């Protein structure tokens, strides 16, 4: 949440900062601002609303400096307003700060600073930071940059919570300062210029070489250099990592929205996820894992933990792990898991899924599992992200950058990777079955089958038109189809703002059916041959009560009673969500477009939830 950018080099900083902020806007879009170092000192321009609003501020063109910082905000403390926008400055207007994260003890720190004569203009937690830096910097000899870094260190040692902070100070016309803890930030290495960003895609068009900062590491960036210091201010060396994403993967490439592009990218992203990980007739190779039969036999339970869509992806894997590998598997929401004192032993295997790899609750859940001695696996889409640095083992989905706030290609890639991991476990455990080989074959065929669905979207568009003014929509399914109902309902509510609910179809009669009345829309998903007749009966019950129905299926059922049927290719029910979700992603997308909404940046949401 919140996007931060920084630039120091030989070019004018302002356009680079604005460009970076526009690309980072999916992290938050309540307000935006930049500070640029001019010959006369720091100049700040900030505004409530979207980044493009900054371009309408007349003074923006006056900014000529070649070093600056920028921020796009997802409001936590203090409502969206110009005064609460970042950058924030200290009372003396010597230090400018942008911050992503939450300072949990800001009230205490405000009191401390107030007692020392400081005043506060905003309601934000962030405003304590420039003032704390000022407070400590005043106590140094102000001889050189290390005095400033020392003051920065003293300030951040006072902070509780999470932060990625960029700092400019009037005494340093050629250097800027950064530090982080539990909030994402990367440093891009250029030629005679260096960059800072919350994530890689925003600056991918400038560089592919990135430094990753660990918690409480400081960096001092100048045009020609980046210096790193540990918490004791000892100088440390870092090597940049080269990121293989191509620039066009972070562009819309002719599509109207990133979400549509990412839905259409799924055949490609799944091919990338599969890579060389499975081959028919050969044991699956997962270079990242070195599990033995003895180890897997000793595992007492598997937890799969994640948030939102990533959790929905995790739900799909329980059946494969239990039925093929006989591993008792529980899937949990990270924000629940971390506080419910789960039973974790050194024999527990925990799998954490996060597209961004920066989700605060998922990282906290992972740390908890480690504290209890469990083995941990991270599944992420972002190389070097926090979750991958914390876990014992990391596997990447290789889906390419996902920019739209609503997750689509990450979800399907996560399911594919989880299924491959389950197959690997089964093979290590010595399970050799025709069904396992069949499952591999099915995974390899998935990209082509998604292409078939994507080539035939008229019915979906048409149904989207018909229900775009609805107030409530229900999604139902049984078994693995229920997990897709969850994802379909999440997609619809987040980008169309239509109230959507998902239910295990068998649960309808236990309460929710009371809400079914004439004209209400119910969407049923049926890919499991054994369970489909039962879901058909549940749908029959809502049709009788006047519901409008859409069915997504590959089963041979009587279709005449439904208003619309989207047929998808046949696929094993172990991985069917990879296909059955696609019409639901498109449905949510076209409904959002019908309603004239901003598909890529739905209200109140942000791509990467780095606060609890
Ligand atoms: C929904 C969505 C969110 C994320 C969730 C976890 O479309 O994008 O529900 O799935 O915030 O994010 P990651 O996977 O980055 O941990």
Overall mean pLDDT stands at 94
Ligand kinds: fructose -6-phosphate
The overall number of domains is 3
**Estimated structural class:** alpha/beta
* Overall CATH class of the largest domain: Alpha Beta
Largest sheet: 8 strands, antiparallel
Tell me the Rg in angstroms.
25 Å
Q: What is the CATH superfamily of the largest domain?
A: Aminohydrolase, N-terminal nucleophile (Ntn) domain
At the fold tier of CATH, the topology name of the largest domain is Glutamine Phosphoribosylpyrophosphate, subunit 1, domain 1
| Shape descriptor | globular
Helix residue percentage: 25-40%
- Side by side, the strands of the main sheet go 3-2-4-1-10-9-11-15
Unreliable spans are none
Number of strands: 25
Q: Strand content of the residues, in percent?
A: 15-25%
Return the CATH architecture of the largest domain.
Answer: 4-Layer Sandwich
Cα end-to-end separation: 10 Å
